[in-house]
Design goal:
Blueprint (H helix, E strand, L loop, with lengths): L1 H25 L24 E3 L9 E9 L11 E5 L17 H4 L3 E5 L5 E7 L12 E7 L6 E2 L3 E3 L7 H4 L10 E2 L2 E3 L2 E5 L2 E2 L9
Parallel strand pairs: 1-5, 2-11, 2-12, 8-9
Antiparallel strand pairs: 2-5, 3-4, 3-6, 6-7, 6-8, 10-11
Length: 209
Amino acid sequence: MDFKIRVIPLLLLTIISSLTSCKAQSKKKVGGACDGCEAIYEYESKILYSVDTLPEFQQNEPKLKISGTVFKMDGITPAENVIIYIYHTNRQGIYETKGNETGWAKRHGFIRGWVKTGKDGLYTFYTFRPAPYPDGSECEHIHITIKESDKNEYYLDEYLFDDDPLLTPSIKNTLKNRGGSGIVSPQAENKILTINRNIILGKNIPNYE
C-alpha cells in the first residue's frame, strides 16, 4: 500500500511535467525576434481583402503593382487567411508621417497596407516604388510581415529590386530567403511597374513546424 501511495504522486508529477513541456514547446516563437511585427495588427476595424491600395498611390510615380500567391509548405497548395502587412519609404527615402500617428506608425509611417488571402492564396498591393534611404545606406526595399491563423506574426525577406544599383552581390549573399527570395524584377505594364513574388510559408523560417 505504501508503494502505491508513493508511485501515484510520482506518476501525476510526470504527467503534469510532460503536459507543461508540450505547452511550452507549442508556444515557441516562430521566426525568431521581430522588431515591429506587431504592426500587422494595426489595421483596426478595417475589413481585409486580397487586394489593397496604399496611400499616395495616385500621387506618385512610378506606380507599382505587387502580386503573387501564398503557398503552404509544400509550395503547391494555396494558403488561405494569411494576413500580409507591408510598408515602405516615400520617394525621398523617408518613412513619411503626418504627425498624428500612434503605435508602430510612428516609425513605419503611413505608407503601409494589409491584405488577407482567400482560398486561392492570391494577394495584390497597389503602391509606388520606394526610394533608398537618403544617405544611401539601404537600397530600395519594401518590408513585409505575415500572420498565419495558427502561428505568431513573423517577417519575411524584404522586397528588393534587381535593377537597383545599390543591390550589390555582397548584399544578395547575406539574404536568408525567408519565405523564398524577395528579389523581384519590375516589368512595365500599362504605365505601371508590376512585380510578382510567390511566398512559401515556413521556408527558411526558424522554429517552423
